[in-house]
Write a structure and sequence with these properties.
This protein has one domain. Helices cover 42% and strands 12% of the residues. The protein is built from three helices and three strands, in the order αααβββ.
């Protein structure tokens, strides 16, 4: 009597390993795309929240904050009454006075009427900002996305 041994051949095992590897690669690529879109959505929501806080500040004070004010965490929490998380890009840095060239940064530039290029409100100077510019970049996007006030440019 002859015994038969059943099992998988090496070719069958290799085919299964290759199929699993292909499915894993597809899943990883799809997951990275979802992460990028989620971070972009968070950036856009942050910009909308910042814009609303700035517009409410304008209603109360008849001007927008200076660039120096907006980088102050205490000013943002007390005067703008906005969440600190809205001023930090996902996986990045807090808001600053700049023009955005990175997905890791939010930028704010206050504008004074008739003055170029900005109203920083440096120490010892009182400036009234009549408009502003917010800038940020989306993942994989080489162009700027900006939400600007209705008074831009003044």
């Amino acid at each position: 009597m002859k015994k038969t041994i059943s099992g998988f051949t090496i070719v069958e095992l290799l085919i299964v390993v290759v199929v699993i590897a292909i499915l894993a690669a597809i899943s990883i690529v799809a997951y990275n795309g979802v992460q990028s879109r989620a971070k972009d959505a968070e950036r856009q929501n942050d910009m909308n929240a910042i814009k609303k806080a700035l517009e409410l500040y304008y209603v109360d004070n008849s001007s927008y904050p200076t660039s120096n004010q907006i980088v102050s965490g205490s000013f943002r929490s007390s005067s703008l009454q906005a969440s600190a998380e809205n001023f930090v890009s996902p996986g990045g840095n807090g808001i600053s006075y700049c023009w955005s060239a990175s997905v890791n940064q939010y930028c704010y530039v206050g504008r004074a009427a008739g003055q170029s290029p900005d109203c920083t409100g440096a120490a010892g100077t009182a400036q009234t900002c009549s408009s502003y510019s917010l800038s940020y970049m989306l993942t994989g996007d080489t162009s700027y996305r900006a939400i600007r006030s209705d008074t831009w440019p003044n």
